[in-house]
Design the sequence.
């Protein structure tokens, strides 16, 4: 098995917007604390932060580490577009990403190097991630190697490619962007993140990447996603169309033309989900609007609209509404 030379060939992009300084420092330290010899640059893109403590922290980080490059956007353009800005400044063969409030685990770079040793022709590598909530840490359990035909390259390391991979990604397989490594050449070939999507831009990137190169997936947890407890209706993005607009972009994407039918179905399912969440939060007119959007996509799809009307007429309390609409909520959007 060929050994990877210890040289600088990885740039990491981190978009920042008003991040808590303590979390930001922890994110940066997780990259440089150990095994960082292959990291060329950490490129931090400040997406027009307004909190003085965040701005001061960014300046401190830049001044204290020569391998940190700080780019400041002139306006707030979103995480995906900010990552595109960071990749433009990257010079390394490989790129990766980290959210400003998450952390890379100590085995991240050793795992990446082992993957390259096993598959030197790889252009896209992913690993597993764990989710840190208020009082617990849970490992993401979607096991792609058990649900998708692929080739085992090495122990706990698999290769997936072609239409089956794209179809599996459409139907919900998810890994965090921070647990991905992508060759800069293939990222630039597909023009990076879709600039008009602020939510779901990572999923759209995966779909488009899957049409260009195989995915090599390692069953190692290398990334810790920090997430506060969020209820079905407390997150604003769960109530707005922007949360599912990436499916519209996918439907229009030339690279994904042959997958229009399953993408269209996912857009319908996500719209039903959105309508149900709005109804449960008391936003009745928004719920009816998104129900009507389902019918715009498919004139024969009355499922959510009928249930919304039933909810308005027959449901006397929130528990009744949740019971009626729960079947529309069992989907990741």
Sequence:
């Amino acid at each position: 098995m060929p050994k990877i030379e210890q040289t600088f060939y990885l740039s990491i992009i981190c978009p920042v917007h008003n991040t808590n300084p303590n979390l930001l420092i922890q994110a940066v330290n997780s990259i440089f604390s150990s095994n960082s010899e292959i990291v060329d640059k950490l490129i931090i893109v400040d997406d027009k932060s307004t909190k003085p403590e965040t701005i001061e922290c960014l300046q401190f980080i830049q001044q204290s580490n020569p391998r940190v490059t700080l780019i400041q956007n002139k306006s707030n353009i979103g995480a995906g577009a900010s990552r595109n800005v960071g990749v433009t400044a990257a010079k390394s063969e490989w790129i990766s990403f980290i959210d400003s409030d998450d952390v890379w685990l100590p085995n991240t770079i050793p795992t990446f190097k082992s993957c390259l040793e096993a598959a030197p022709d790889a252009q896209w590598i992913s690993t597993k991630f764990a989710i840190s909530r208020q009082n617990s840490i849970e490992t993401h359990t979607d096991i792609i190697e058990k649900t998708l035909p692929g080739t085992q390259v090495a122990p706990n390391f698999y290769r997936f490619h072609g239409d089956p991979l794209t179809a599996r990604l459409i139907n919900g397989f998810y890994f965090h962007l921070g647990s991905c490594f992508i060759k800069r050449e293939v990222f630039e070939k597909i023009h990076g993140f879709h600039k008009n999507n602020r939510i779901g831009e990572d999923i759209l990137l995966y779909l488009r990447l899957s049409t260009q190169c195989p995915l090599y997936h390692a069953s190692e947890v290398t990334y810790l996603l920090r997430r506060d407890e969020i209820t079905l209706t407390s997150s604003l993005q769960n109530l707005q169309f922007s949360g599912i607009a990436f499916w519209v972009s996918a439907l229009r994407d030339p690279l994904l033309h042959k997958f229009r039918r399953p993408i269209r179905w996912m857009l319908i399912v996500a719209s039903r989900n959105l309508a149900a969440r709005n109804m449960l939060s008391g936003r009745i007119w928004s719920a009816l609007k998104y129900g009507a959007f389902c019918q715009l996509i498919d004139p024969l799809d009355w499922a959510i609209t009928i249930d919304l009307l039933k909810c308005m007429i027959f449901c006397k309390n929130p528990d009744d509404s949740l019971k009626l609409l729960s079947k529309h909520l069992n989907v990741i959007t």
